[in-house]
Amino acid sequence: MRDYDDVLFPEGYQKIKDLEALIAKLTAENKQKMAMKDQQINDLNKKIEELEKPLSKSDAKLNQ
């Protein structure tokens, strides 16, 4: 059965469609930002691991 909201309430229907489009856009932007943050976290974790490696080697020398 067809939904006649677009015929009966054209202004409200258009506002709903505009809001749905805005929600979709903001959701996509949020996912992109979250992916960028995840990448930054991964990069920082790799840097931390790299910085810990030399400490481990110098600690090993001190323990000998």
Automatic annotation (TrEMBL):
Domain of life: Bacteria
Protein name: Uncharacterized protein
Protein species of origin: Ileibacterium valens
